[in-house]
């Protein structure tokens, strides 16, 4: 069960945004990721709880940020309920999309797991619903993911396989690269892995 923390920063001007302390695990029914997010000063800023099935589809999502809460799952596309900080108003949403995304590294692993692009096979398109802090307002976006390289790095245990994905925003044309090893993000825009207590899990 990998456990560690990421540092988060603005990918454009590198302003520190805080840290995300996580643990995650694979199991017979899929994968689960749980994290607590803190501000640069160490105050609690939110949490992520994401469970995927064996195909990478979101079985359950619960996000907290700025007093807002989102609960969602893959149901007739993706369906969610967003609750305001007072708890008095809840709005439901449903979009014919494949999965969720957001600021957490968890969503990069989840999207790669869902799409599983093959090396040299070209890009795979997907439609996602994004929830980003601080108000977790939903936004639908289209991306393409391509696996551009897999590099083995020697470690004290088994070799660490660094899978590099090129991710394209199909609306803006923006491109960036995401480096994953199993169920851990090694590097991505705005995300750096700062500590890891045990090796990444490998998906079956």
Topology:
Layout: E1 3-9, E2 16-27, E3 30-38, E4 44-52, E5 58-65, E6 68-74, E7 78-83, E8 90-95, E9 99-102, H1 105-115, E10 124-132, E11 137-153, E12 160-169, E13 175-181, E14 184-188, E15 191-196
Quick take:
With 204 residues, the protein is mainly β. It is 5% helix and 60% strand. A 15-stranded mixed β-sheet has the order 8-7-6-5-4-3-2-1-15-14-13-12-11-10-9, with helices on one face.
Number of strands: 15
Largest sheet, if any? 15 strands, mixed
Could you tell me the strand content as a percent range? over 45%
Helix run count = 1
Mean pLDDT: 95
Order of helices and strands: EEEEEEEEEHEEEEEE
Low-confidence stretches: none
- Structural class label: mainly beta
N- to C-terminal distance = 15 Å
Helix content: under 10%
Global outline: globular
The neighbouring-strand order within the major sheet is 8-7-6-5-4-3-2-1-15-14-13-12-11-10-9
Radius of gyration: 16 Å
Organism: Streptomyces ramulosus
Protein name: Glycolipid-binding domain-containing protein
Walk me through the structure:
The chain is mostly beta strands. The protein contains 1 helix and 15 strands; from the N terminus they run βββββββββαββββββ. The protein has a 15-stranded mixed beta sheet, covered by helices on one side. A hairpin with a 3-residue loop joins β6 (68-74) and β7. The longest helix is centred in the middle third of the chain and has 11 residues, at 105-115. The radius of gyration is 16 Å and the shape is globular. The model has no long low-confidence stretch (mean pLDDT 95).
């Amino acid at each position: 069960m990998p456990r560690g923390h990421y540092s988060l920063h603005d990918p454009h001007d590198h302003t520190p945004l805080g840290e995300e302390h996580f643990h995650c695990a694979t199991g017979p029914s899929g994968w689960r990721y749980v994290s607590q997010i803190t501000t640069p000063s160490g105050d609690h800023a939110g949490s992520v709880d994401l469970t995927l099935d064996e195909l990478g589809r979101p079985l359950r999502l619960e996000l907290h940020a700025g007093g807002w809460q989102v609960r969602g799952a893959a149901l007739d596309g993706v369906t969610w309920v967003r609750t305001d900080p007072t708890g008095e108003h809840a709005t439901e949403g449903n979009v014919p999309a494949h999965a969720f995304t957001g600021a957490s590294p968890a969503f990069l692993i989840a999207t790669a797991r869902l799409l599983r692009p093959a090396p040299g096979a070209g890009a795979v398109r997907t439609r996602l619903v994004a929830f980003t802090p601080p108000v977790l307002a939903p936004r639908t976006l289209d991306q393409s993911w391509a696996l551009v390289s897999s590099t083995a790095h020697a470690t004290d245990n088994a070799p660490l396989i660094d899978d590099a994905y090129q991710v394209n925003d199909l609306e803006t044309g923006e491109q960036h690269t995401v480096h994953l090893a199993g169920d851990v993000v090694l590097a991505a825009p705005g995300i750096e892995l700062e500590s890891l207590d045990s090796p990444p899990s490998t998906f079956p």
